[in-house]
Amino acid sequence: MPKLIPVITEEEIKEQISRVAKEISKDYEDKKLILIGVLKGSFIFTADLSRSLSIPNQVDFVGASSYGSNTSTSGEVTITKDVGLDLEGKHVLVLEDIVDTGLTLIRIIDYLKKFNPESVKICALLNKHERRTADITVDYECFAIPKGFLVGYGLDYAEDYRNLPAIFNLEE
Ligand code: 5GP
Questions:
Q1: How far is 106 from 167, CA to CA, in rounded Å?
Q2: Is residue 46 within 6 Å of ligand 1 at its C-beta?
Q3: What predicted TM-score, i.e. pTM, was given to this entire model?
Q4: Is there an atom of ligand 1 within 6 Å of 42 CB?
Q5: 104 lines ligand 1 (CB under 6 A)
Q6: Per the structure, how many domains does the chain have?
Q7: pLDDT tens-digit map of 59-75
Q8: For residue 146, what pLDDT is reported?
Q9: For residue 153, what are the domain limits?
Q10: How many angstroms separate the alpha carbon of residue 1 from the centre of ligand 1?
Q11: Which residue puts its alpha carbon closest to atom 5 of ligand 1?
Q12: Which of 42, 110, 129, 161 ranks highest by number of CB atoms within 10 Å?
């Protein structure tokens, strides 16, 4: 049976989202901001961050699949859901649940740039620096984490555990 080891509490998630939301609200004051959540893992993060911002913001989602139900990256990333909003001339902030190798984000950013946004930046709930292979900059991060396979607060293992309110390490 897999074991769930607590890593980040609900309270800590709230605190860090509130801290990052303040930074973003300041940086994007007087700008048209569109949040793009990366499905499915970012759906809860996107809802919470959007509501924590003190500036107006619009929300859309992009679908990307990289892992399937395994715990290691295949390196092949496909866009499974297109954005619906018009991004031309807008400031886009991509919300990613967890950045690991960075390959998913590279693909998503390339895809979003085709719509001629004014700017594209990245906000990550969890930033796993250790396994980074892609050359990307995470502009805003809630938590830096070294390793492990995390579930909860939107993150899944084979579609389970997304509904957990806190974040856990899944150990076999
Ligand atoms: P990357 O392309 O940066 O290697 O991987 C990013 C994607 O892989 C994330 O959006 C997430 O879907 C998945 N992923 C990476 N690490 C983890 C993890 O620890 N737990 C879960 N549930 N998914 C992960």
A1: 25
A2: no
A3: 0.94
A4: no
A5: yes
A6: 1
A7: 999 998 875 445 555 56
A8: 85
A9: 3-171
A10: 22
A11: 100
A12: 42
